[in-house]
Amino acid sequence: MNDSGFATNSKQIALVPAYEPEEIMIELLKQLKDKALNVIIVDDGSGDAYSDLFKRAEEYGTVLVHQQNMGKGCAIKTGLKYIYGHFEAPYTVVTVDADGQHRIDDVMRVCARAGAEPDALVLGSRKFNGKVPLRSRFGNTVTRFVFRISSGKKVYDTQTGLRAFSDKLIPRLTEIDGERYEYEMNVLMRFSRDDIPIREEWIETVYIDDNSSTHFDTIRDSWKIYKEILKFSGASLISFCVDYSLYCILNAVTGQLLFSNVAARIVSATVNYTLNRKMVFNSKAPVLKSVLQYIALAVFIIACNSALLKLLTGIGLNKYLIKIPVELAMFIVSWSVQHLFIFGTEENAKSGESNQFEEKSGGKV
User: Fold this and answer.
1) Fewer CB within 10 Å: C terminus or N terminus of the chain?
2) Model confidence at 222, in pLDDT bands (50, 70, 90)?
């Protein structure tokens, strides 16, 4: 039993990915070493201007160097591959951001809990109380919502960089795709899909200088995090346009309302299935199986949609106004089922990035 209240016998390793860090990183490394953690620092292509800082970092641990900036996800996987090849199990790894926004007591508590629960991923979750930059508060609220509807599970802080796990989970972590900040969201998605427990430990919310040191690119990194659900929305919009256009054309040519509606829906559903399978989820699931599942889902969605509209209009709600929230609810159901069960039953893309790095110090432990 340690000071954090969790029983653990494994050694503890801190992994610190860093890109153009500030002086505060050295203080963090000193605190980690004082707590008897083995420290692995990954210089993610910071360049010659930061070589002196990383030279000083070698006093506190092993420094691995990317010759060019490859992204936080790549840096984490570089560190994990090094750890897996140089440390003997059992051990616990805790990832810590280099910007000094994780308190050492929180780091140790999260790490200790992961040591006590080696089958789980433990997140250091912030409550976002006090003075929090609007971009950070808004970003986490959106990703929390996206994660909830995508996985069916609740995680309060999806963007935390303070995460701990045992050596048992490293092979899975190094296989998950993602090069930049989207990697951390991909980990949560994959683990929730594979029913790997995700635990949360509350930590202090700290932002230094209004989080000015972050390298998060709002447009590029947000796209990588949210692109799947945005592409799903785009596919739905395209399918709607096909459905509506074909319905109008067939109705004008044949004058047969029922035929026009059914024919248009069959064509638009085929377009939607193809777009979702190929472009949204990049699925390699068997075609026949996924087609049958998709048809079953479509029938279910239509039945639920009709039942909800009948129920809500039956209690006096406006049939035009209520259509919008009902369609939104069905959109969320459709997205979740397709993501989790129809097209998301296997890992569709493996990480293909090259994690070449230069080791500056360290050895077998």
Assistant:
1) N
2) low
